[in-house]
C-alpha cells in the first residue's frame, strides 16, 4: 500500500512539473492581487486590471502589475 501511494505521488509530481499548462497562457498573469493575506508578489493570475479589482473588492487587498512585467527589460527591434 505504501509503495502504491509513493508511486502515485511521484507520478503526480512528475506530471505537474512536465505539464506545459503553466506556460500555455503567458498573458494571463499581468496583474497581481496583493495584500496581507497574499504577500508579494501575490496571486498573479489576472489578465486585466478590472478582473483583479473585482476579485479584490470587499477585501483589504489591492492590485498591482506583475513585477515580472514591470521590471522586465525592453527589447529593441
TrEMBL record:
Residues 1-24 form the signal peptide. This is DUF3551 domain-containing protein. It comes from the Bacteria. Keywords: Signal. It comes from Bradyrhizobium canariense. InterPro entries: DUF3551 (IPR021937). Pfam families: DUF3551.
